[in-house]
Design goal:
single chain; alpha+beta; two-stranded antiparallel sheet; 11 strands; globular
């Protein structure tokens, strides 16, 4: 699998924040992909294999290109399946819950249903001019948040594409250090005009 295609898939879990009754702590969180299926094919082993190939080929890749690829895949975490994520006090005060959004997609505000520490969601998006639908669940458990999401759409060739991604967020500490809050780093997707955030 090409590195760039892999990076687009990984971008799914650099979540956009949407308003909901969440109860998430401000501070530094670690987000990890635990499952990623594309049309039933497990992409986690391919992701790890691509990362290992990149590390082994470091001597043959120009230093500048290598740094760009490493940053694209790991965002400084050293692990292609893990990302640091900073939740600002402002975001936490507004009870934001992290719901992944497809890269380059314009999405309507998700429909949310809450039951205890579970939030079920459904969303309708446009991605590169094509329709895309998504549904999933967010589960809060103290210092851990699990998100499962399934999207259905079409790829650039017009073929149906189904993707399932499961991520786990783990609270690390209240100080984010050098990591910018999600709503300042470009990770929080803007709502479409006329939709609530």
């Amino acid at each position: 699998m090409k590195i760039r295609t892999l990076a687009v898939l990984l971008a799914l879990f650099t979540a956009g924040a949407v308003h909901a009754q969440g109860g998430i702590k401000p501070g530094l969180w670690e987000t990890r992909i635990v499952r990623m299926l594309v049309n039933g094919e497990d992409m986690v082993p391919q992701t790890i294999a691509a990362w290992e190939r990149l590390k082994k080929s470091q001597t043959s890749i120009p230093p500048e290109q290598r740094k760009k690829m490493e940053a694209l895949l790991t965002q400084g975490s050293g692990d292609p399946l893990t990302r640091p994520m900073c939740i600002s006090a402002d975001m936490a005060a507004r009870d934001h819950v992290m719901i992944p959004r497809p890269p380059r997609a314009e999405c309507e505000s998700p429909k949310l249903t809450r039951s205890g520490n579970h939030i079920n969601f459904e969303m309708v998006c446009k991605q590169d001019g094509r329709d895309l639908t998504g549904k999933g669940e967010v589960v809060f458990a103290g210092d851990q948040v699990t998100t499962k999401m399934e999207t259905v759409g079409t790829n650039a060739a017009g073929a149906r594409q189904n993707m399932v991604v499961e991520t786990r967020m783990k609270f690390l500490r209240s100080d984010c250090g050098q990591v910018l809050p999600l709503n300042q780093s470009g990770g929080e997707a803007p709502a479409k005009p006329g939709t609530k955030k």
